[in-house]
Amino acid sequence: MPDQTERTLASLDDALRPLDTLVDRPVDEHPAVFEAVHESLRRTLTEPDS
Hints:
2 helices; mainly alpha
């Protein structure tokens, strides 16, 4: 079973994954991706450990 650090790192990787799609998106769509990534990172880093 993964420990909390491994789960958090996996969650952070998942949160950052949408950045990989930027190269295929028009520039005017980038801000929405950045906002979604920011929100996902914020949630991941502020959620209490489970």
